[in-house]
What does this fold into?
Amino acid sequence: MFGKNRTAMVIGAQWGDEGKGKVIDYLTPDADYVVRFQGGNNAGHTLVVDGVVHKLHLIPSGVLYKGKRVVLGNGMVIDPEVLISEMDNFESKGIKLNMLISERAHVILPFHIIMDGMIDEYKGKLGAGTTRRGIGPAYADKAERSGIRMIDLMDTKIFREKYDQLFDLKKKTLKCLYKENIKLNKEEIFRSYVNFAKRLKPYVGDVSLEVNTAIDNGKKILFEGAQGTMLDNDHGAYPHTTSSNTIAGAVCTGVGVGPTKIDSIVGVVKAYLSRVGTGPVPTEAKNRLGDHLRERGQEYGTTTGRPRRCGWVDLVQLRYACRVNGLTSLAITKVDVLGGLKKIPIATKYKYKSSYITELPADLNLQRQCKPVYKELDGWKDISDEEFKKIITGGYKELPKKMRTYLKFIEDQTNTPISLVSVGAERTSTIEVKE
Ligand code: GDP
Ligand code: IMO
Ligand code: MG
It folds into this structure.
């Protein structure tokens, strides 16, 4: 995957949950570092290795390989309690953590979580159906310059100064705006965060310095995206997005590496589509086939357990993802889930009133009303695990012809080559596409 490249990035090309974790885990052997650059524990990345399921929310997906350095960049918002429980979980499995956390990453506090739920609830139809992990309010504090960074947490005096102000500000805000009396114990939270700081301190450092030095010394870096293009705060389906930039460019601000150091960008695409949360999704299949995809693909949120809304690949959306991310290749996942379908619809454009739309609209009104125009491609027979094992050994050319036609159609329509095909959740159920 790396070849002569110094860095590679894996990001979600759709609405999140495309299988980024699996792809990262597969590619990690070629990397020295796996680095996350945005989001927090709204992410849920699932890895399956030898039948064992690992769920990750904050620690990068390279963690299962011995010696790989896993890094949490400054663009992230980190709930220390969640991070520590994830660390405990891996350490209890005998996995030694080689981890670096950016001193500039922001900290999620309990009132962020309370506010997240209240604000999203208040917004109703204009909400995003957030994961209720405090992500939006933590990023809002960062933008407003009231946030607490990892480095602040490490210094009890500074933490006290900033925490006192922030807690009081939140208390007043909640009371004035939402008529809520905050029921949190200020001192208890303070004490527990001071304890979290003690546990995290050995891992906290200057991420930009270390990652840039590593690149200059010939180390290979894999950047791990969270969420997906349509959840990007600028380029996604705003306001039904997350609160960070999720597209490829975010790695520059989220780690502190220059754009000249980004070599390849792999967009992960589910062979159909899923979305968890609120807002228009033009190609959602609110019918028996949508239910079939959900059950067959086990489309239930890794973070919240919510049923995912399922539908079909949307080429208007995908071409847009290729453009805003500058994707150099696609990794298509969950192709196995489509087995046994007679026809597979794929949206090539939208219809709005009497006109056709081929570029993704920013207009919420258009997003709500446009209807997908589908081309139907032939499906292929269901393939058993045993058959897939043989196919994987033989490589891409062994895939059924109709499956290859479907994949080629996506490739042609997006003008982006496919570099990887995933046909099962297991690490080994992966086919690299050689040029
Ligand atoms: P992420 O957030 O992008 O990392 O994706 P998630 O882990 O939230 O969701 C993807 C789900 O699909 C996980 O349960 C994976 O184990 C599973 N998965 C990944 N690739 C494949 C595949 O090719 N086939 C099947 N059947 N499952 C897959
Ligand atoms: P991974 O990394 C899918 C969605 C939520 C909601 C919106 C905002 O596993 O692909 P937030 O809690 O971020 O403020 O919620 O974004 N969302 C995700 N959907 N996968 C994710 O992450 C997501 N992270 C957030 O459902 O609609
Ligand atoms: Mg996920």
